[in-house]
Amino acid sequence: NAGVTQTPKFQVLKTGQSMTLQCAQDMNHNSMYWYRQDPGMGLRLIYYSASEGTTDKGEVPNGYNVSRLNKREFSLRLESAAPSQTSVYFCASSAPWEQETQYFGPGTRLLVL
Amino acid sequence: DQQVKQNSPSLSVQEGRISILNCDYTNSMFDYFLWYKKYPAEGPTFLISISSIKDKNEDGRFTVFLNKSAKHLSLHIVPSQPGDSAVYFCAASDRGVGNTGKLIFGQGTTLQVKP
Question: What is the mean pLDDT of residues B21-26?
Fold first, then answer.
């Protein structure tokens, strides 16, 4: 039982490049979330998915797209990376009866040059 | 506008003493509050929560207090242990908007417990 897994662990991009961050959970959770963590800012919600086939914007969605591929997987795509997107990205999931109790992956550290 | 604020970036306490971490919020619609703990190079983990219908919730060494009139909550750790050294995030939710699980996090407080 791996919980929430994220790939890659670390990535360096040049401005304008694109990439997809992958997230998968094996807890049969309905809801999944993408956050970014920046120094002094805490965690901010980028996008979330309440169930397979649905996605909604969070606090800071600009510059990102998401895909809920199936119940297990929720990916985050940066179409044209900018230095302001340098951050640590966390994926999380939760059960429907306890949405706020979220289980987080280990994070992806992204550096955009 | 920061709806959830943790005004102390860091806190240092001696092993065995009490650690008190504070959190303030501005949105009166928040009705569920949580604390998450984060070690370096790991994702946050859920620690304890409290509903707005309560003013205290206890789980072992961890107690969360909620003062709705002051829009303030605090996390007490007694006794503090070196393994408690981590970043603590306060988070809040408005369950009235369909219980989506959307959380607003504070900036975090780094706790150091000295042996």
Answer: 98
